[in-house]
Design brief:
Helices cover about 35% and strands about 30% of the residues. Strands 2, 3, 4, 5, 6, 7, 8, 9, 10, 11, 13, 14, 15 and 16 form a 14-stranded mixed beta sheet that branches. The chain has a 3-stranded mixed beta sheet with strand order 18-21-20. It has a two-stranded antiparallel ribbon with strand order 1-12. The protein is α+β, with helices and mostly antiparallel strands and about 350 residues long.
Length: about 350
């Protein structure tokens, strides 16, 4: 009997609903509205999942948007009073039900470490934050990040919708810890690791302790496999069966266009540079200016325009405080003769001093 099993139907519905809630939060296009309506009409379970997750989302606008997309049928004139009373009663029951569910979840959590836990964590552009999950796992989120956490009695599942996070995973032999980002999943085998999501198909993984398995999100390792893979010295056959890759401490994996590139061994300096954001810093060591500015832009609303083609290939080196635009521009002027001009609050143009 295979120890690897796919997500249940409920899991898949929850994952799809989570993506729709995130999309509603950023704003739906006309085509996406049609797609959402089609998906929601396929099953009552789809609609229930949407409204359940909307209740957990910290933006009331999401629930309002759902209510406008799927309004209740208007009552007839003869039954208006009755309908209003019924609706009011229904809302009260729903509200009480939600309160009971929320509090029962916390009561259960106090009694049982395997209690269900669902929550969404976010950071704004330029913001970083650290959270401690119910199992004592420590999560540090980088700028502009959205992370969904869903714990059950036998699984710890997180969805990185955007951004970057560092995960110091608490040991729990009965519940594997998996972060889903785009079209890949990262299962911790007793570890500390960092995941950056650039797009759904472009991801970065850095492991600083233990090891992490990269696989397709539809393939999940149960507790038995989890412990066997974690403790075994040779897991090559098991990994091949799962069509997965394992990254160990001091290694980095790049996923480009959904394909995992050859695993890279990192030096101590490489690790420090890749994870400098965890200390609020950015370190560059010869990256092209265009790449450096793209990284800087993750931490600020400021956008840069290179007016001279030669600028994009200039090499940048140094340590900068994340979000410190003035410090960066002063350094470029002093070391690379790059001048700047501000056009409005969030737009900066760059030119070579010799061409000014």
């Amino acid at each position: 009997m295979s120890n690897v099993h796919p997500f249940t139907s409920h899991d898949m519905i929850q994952a799809q609903a989570s993506r729709w809630i995130s999309a509603i939060d950023r704003g739906l296009s006309d085509e996406e509205v049609k797609q959402l309506q089609v998906w929601a009409s396929q099953s009552r379970a789809h609609q229930d999942a949407l409204f359940e997750l909307a209740q957990l989302w910290d933006e009331m606008s999401v629930l309002n948007e759902l209510s406008s997309l799927f309004p209740h049928k208007a009552p007839t004139k003869q039954s208006t009073s009755f309908g209003m009373a019924t609706a009011a009663s229904f809302l009260v029951v729903m509200l009480l039900g939600c309160i009971i569910l929320i509090y029962s979840s916390y009561w259960h959590s106090a009694e049982n470490d395997h209690a269900k836990f669902t929550k969404i964590y976010r950071t704004k552009v330029g913001e970083q934050a650290t959270f401690v999950l119910p199992d004592s796992t420590i999560v540090q989120l980088n700028t502009n990040t959205n992370l969904e956490v869903a714990y059950t009695g036998n699984r710890r599942q997180l969805i990185l919708n955007r951004g970057e996070g560092r995960f110091n995973v608490a040991k729990d032999a009965s519940r594997p810890f998996t972060v889903i980002a785009g079209d890949k999943s990262f299962t911790a085998l007793g570890t500390v690791f960092n995941v950056q999501r650039n797009t759904a198909s472009d991801l970065e993984l850095v492991v600083t302790e233990g090891k992490v398995m990269i696989a397709d999100p539809s393939t999940q390792v149960d507790a038995t496999d989890f412990n066997r893979l974690k403790d075994a010295t040779d897991t090559s056959n098991d990994i091949k069966k799962l069509k997965a890759n394992v990254v160990v401490s001091g290694e980095k994996a790049l996923i480009k266009h959904s394909k995992t590139e050859p695993i890279k061994q990192l030096s101590a300096d490489d690790v420090q540079r890749d994870l400098a954001w965890q200390h609020g810093m950015l370190i560059f060591n010869g990256e092209p200016l265009s790449d450096a500015l793209q990284e800087v832009s993750r931490y600020t609303a400021t956008r840069f325009e290179l007016l001279d083609p030669e600028l994009s290939t200039l090499k940048v080196a140094g340590v900068f405080k994340a979000g410190d635009i003035k410090g960066l521009l002063d350094s470029l002027a002093a070391n690379l003769a790059v001048e700047h001009q501000r056009l409005g609050e969030h737009r900066v143009t760059l030119t070579l001093a010799t061409k000014s």
